[in-house]
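Components:
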Amino acid sequence: MTHEVIMAGHGGQGVLYMGTLLARAGMLEGKEVSWLPSYGAEQRGGTANCAVVIGDEAVVSPVVYEATGAVVMNGPSLEKFAPHVRPGGVLVVNTSLAPERVERGDLRVVALPANRLAEETGDGRSANMVALGAFAAATGIVRMDNLLEALRQATPARRRHLLAGNERALRRGEEWMGKD
Amino acid sequence: MAERILLKGNEALGEAAILAGCRFFAGYPITPQNEIPAYMARRMPRVGGVFIQAESELAAINMVYGAAGAGARAMTSSSSPGISLKQEGISYLAGAELPSVVVNIVRGGPGLGGIQPAQSDYFQATRGGGHGDYRTPVFAPNSVQEMVDLTMEAFEVADAYRNPVLVLGDGILGQMMEPVALPPAREAPLPPKPWATTGAKGPGRRIINSLYLDPVVLEQRNLWLAEKYARMRGLARAETVGMEDAEICLVAYGATSRIVKGAMQMARREGIRAGLIRPVTLWPYPTVSIREAAGRVEAFLVVELSLGQMVEDVRLAVDGKAPVHFYGRTGGMVPSPREVLEKLREVAAGMGKRRVVAAGAGA
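Structure:
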């Protein structure tokens, strides 16, 4: 199956980075992948989103209109992108910054307090990693070991000190899903 | 095959230029191509090349004129409004026969327009946006891998024909990431350039110029160039998908061709036999591929991120043998595969009606 994913939030939450890790992990699994960011007059606090496609066949369209899954990191992103998820698709909602209630009843909604869980693991800024870990576990889109490897590959030497915290956050998201 | 790495289209294009032996880059910032100069600024000093952030697009294209005149493989990049500014320089490069690569990561226009992807510079790219009777080959990649492969090829074509070559991308291709396999760097020495202004010692005085005040001489000059442009016709290239049994031929290039391919697959699942011709070169245009299809299909549907530019080349090639329909979005809007599918259904329904009418007339 081809996964077509939207990840959205506000600038500074690391939603584009989250998407690059997902794409990189997909590549590590030998899949065909693409990553397409929103771009342009973006700013910290503004909106940011990206589309990630992962599948066995060459990616046809890197633009995602009807997502098989989505991660929304704040309220405005929930409003904007929930309508773009296919019936039966997975929607991970960061309930730390978005309402828990989702208008649509035909989605698999994962209510995830990503910021709180991130703080518990040591750094509130890794809420994106918590969400990514949960999304991967909920969809089976990539394996955790590949996500961890992608994270290692993408972390430059000067950011090495953040690696352990990000790994913990990824695993925390996965664990949260295990509770369901 | 080389190991695949995840790269952004703009960065992959920059690396491809370096692998092809480009050692001079001049540019001026504009979205959505900023990663190209940013990448070149980082990489050029490490390979002994030159990166210049010029004071303007005009300065950048004229620096390319100078570097190419001195025999270097030289490139500049910009996006639509910036490419308009470079047109004078492109005409001069063509007039002086200076090999060079000009990259346009197209955004919506006219005027300053917007920053989202578009294909509204097709006329400018394929007809020559500058003055005079000149032509430039135009490559239109549709993936990050092709941003690499076609950019490397652009440098070879530029040298082979002593001509500026355009690479026409768009905001999607520039910004997206995909796995790419980078080919090995060109190791062979660059083709000899006995015309290059490399110093007056030795071979004597060389002049690079495009001014010919005597009309007799200028006409000869233009006829000489025309012969070269005629030879370039052999560069025409297209990819075809599902054309073996197609009743409707879709035509699209660049990132749009991928969305259209998605629509084509959806259409086939509901019994509409659609195929796709994807021009890889926009000039010379793969007229032969279109003309050949025109004898076999019932209709064409051209899809572009513009109000209809390439569709004129399709109509020229089809030459009235089949109806040519058009669907376009503009201003930075990108159609979904489903939108294109809707249009395909309309075209298919129209074909059905014609068949009934034709059958009635025959009876």
